Amino acid sequence: MSIRIENLEKYFAGFHALKNINLTFGQNQLTALLGPSGCGKTTLLRTIAGLEFADSGNIYFGDKKVTALSAAQRNVGFVFQHYALFPNMNVFDNIAFGLQVKPRRLRPEKEKIRQKVTALLALVELSHLAAAYPNQLSGGQRQRVALARSLAVEPQVLLLDEPFGALDAQVRKTLRRWLRDLHLELKVTSVFVTHDQEEALDVSDRIVVMNRGSIEQSDQPERIYHSPQTPFVTQFVGDVNVFHGHIDQGNLVVGEFAHRFNNTNQTQAIDNQSATAYIRPYELTLSRSAENALASGRIVHINAIGFIVRIEIESRQSEQPIEVILTKNDYLQQKYQVKDLVYLVPDKLNLFQQMNI
Ligand SMILES: Nc1ncnc2c1ncn2[C@@H]1O[C@H](COP(=O)(O)OP(=O)(O)OP(=O)(O)O)[C@@H](O)[C@H]1O
């Protein structure tokens, strides 16, 4: 079941929360809605669920228009950050709840419900805790019960709002891997909200980056990371160094440096106009020579503890310290040390130009 959203607009008492949203969520894909706090992720998710209604625009599940349908009529599964399990019901009964409360003519027989809940318990790897009560579970286990509970009614669409947001980093990491595997097995169109870029890059088939109620980019994770289409996406997803300059005959000029570029994400660079280059830490090469460099500076910090080496450089060509990532081999060969003067040569530029400056 694919989800299609057309020209969606949503206001909260004059505040424009969703601005002309057009999106398709592919059948059985796991899509992340990613963006900073307040950008409209939850509002969009709740509008897809039928818990919130748009002021204009349409939502389709497959070919069926669901814009005016209630949440119950849409048959969606929903998992919140803080999912209120029923404290007086054990895990088994919590999962069975959605089936038990169905009208009699739609309710499966008792034995069918038992089989279904047993299968779901196995799926979320909690069979041994069927008789436990929510206050006897860890946060991660509770979220797995919440997920099993939302799946019990066989939703056409699964919507998750920061499902692991309240858990600590290690548990989050385990659960998101587990969600990815589960999603492969279940084959249900799923959308989850997160403000954690690593989480989005790690588990999703597609990422929708939102900013101030609008969509900045909707793309595969590797394209979001390697070919960001807007300055916002470039800075929001992954670490990046920022250089302000201007274009002069195929060169990016920053202060006294002129870097001849032949590899940018943007094909046309307009002469004599301001330009901002965004460069990931691993897309910068350190050099002892000024040839084709974009900047120079002194090394102020070296972190060589891990598999890669992070080097921080203070430079007049950048407002913030520049971060460069090297392999341990490169670092050991060049024998870089704090206070060394180095030049920075980009391998690749993400270049954005402001017009008419
Ligand atoms: N019921 C409401 N009434 C008024 N304003 C609202 C309401 N719900 C959301 N908003 C506003 O709409 C904007 C988007 O909110 P939303 O919860 O969708 O953001 P979000 O991207 O999910 O943020 P977060 O990551 O902090 O949850 C915010 O500025 C919020 O204050």
From TrEMBL:
SMART domains: AAA. The lineage of its organism: Bacteria, Pseudomonadati, Pseudomonadota, Gammaproteobacteria, Pasteurellales. Residues 3-237 form the ABC transporter domain. One of its GO terms (molecular function) is ATP hydrolysis activity. The keyword Nucleotide-binding applies. GO terms for cellular component: ATP-binding cassette (ABC) transporter complex. This is Sulfate transport system ATP-binding protein. InterPro entries: AAA+_ATPase (IPR003593), ABC_SmlMolc_Importer (IPR050093), ABC_transporter-like_ATP-bd (IPR003439), ABC_transporter-like_CS (IPR017871), CysA_C (IPR041193), Mo/tungstate-bd_C_term_dom (IPR008995), P-loop_NTPase (IPR027417), Sulph_transpt1 (IPR005666). One of its GO terms (biological process) is quaternary ammonium group transport. Keywords: ATP-binding, Cell membrane, Membrane, Nucleotide-binding, Sulfate transport, Translocase, Transport. PANTHER family: SPERMIDINE/PUTRESCINE IMPORT ATP-BINDING PROTEIN POTA, SPERMIDINE_PUTRESCINE IMPORT ATP-BINDING PROTEIN POTA. It comes from the Bacteria. PROSITE patterns: ABC_TRANSPORTER_1, ABC_TRANSPORTER_2. It holds the Pfam family TOBE_3.
